Amino acid sequence: MGVEGCTKCIKYLLFVFNFIFWLAGGIILGVALWLRHDSQTTNILYLQLGDKQAPNTFYVGIYILIAVGAVMMFVGFLGCYGAIQESQCLLGTFFTCLVILFACEVAAGIWGFVNKDQIAKDVKQFYDQAFQQALMAESDMNNGKAVVKTFHETLDCCGPDNAVGVITPLWRDDLCPKKEFSLKNVIESSNCHKKIDELFSGKLYLIGIAAIVVAVIMIFEMILSMVLCCGIRNSSIY
């Protein structure tokens, strides 16, 4: 005997929320794949300075997002099927998966908040090392110049956030993007540190919004799944 009344409404409401959850998983998976293959980040994070690889902390977070998106799509499908079939077993499994996902998301959020500035900081340190090598007389003996030019061309900037970086466009046109000379262009193109901050903070901001939306949906789904499970149990008694 199927559920009736308010419990039936909850059943279909849970189905709708699960469908949204499934779509959100697909969106997160798509966004994560886009971030993974974005030309700006790949050009920078695939660089290698001598034996040193560019920091890959950002990609670790992206791989986690890809896994989360795939799991969300599976859990969303499980919740939709469990709600339609009115299966206590499937709904219980669905609730357990949601609790695990929610705990992982909270842990990832705390980790991301603590390390949000560290990602850009590591990349800026990598850039500064390459920049120093590129300015040395023996820079042709290493790939420092190639690494720096990749940063400059990808981010449309030139030089770090210091006095050397400001005057670099004036005397090292082999390192900096070719631009029409003007004081405004020199100032605006002389801060790669700022461009690196903008690159990663914008992407982390996007990830943060998605995480908050998904967390709210999960809370509603956990409540609805438990209410529906109790309704199914009570309806089977009569």
From TrEMBL:
Provide one Gene Ontology cellular component.
basolateral plasma membrane
Instruction: Fetch the Gene3D superfamilies from UniProt.
Output: Tetraspanin (1.10.1450.10)
User: What does the UniProt keyword field contain?
Assistant: Adaptive immunity, Cell membrane, Disulfide bond, Immunity, Lipid-binding, Membrane, Transmembrane, Transmembrane helix
- Show the disulfide pairing: C157-C192, C158-C176
Tell me a GO biological process for this protein. Answer: adaptive immune response
What's a Gene Ontology MF term here? lipid binding
By sequence similarity, the record places it as follows: Belongs to the tetraspanin (TM4SF) family.
- Name it: Tetraspanin
Organism of provenance: Eudyptes chrysocome
Q: Which gene encodes it?
A: CD81
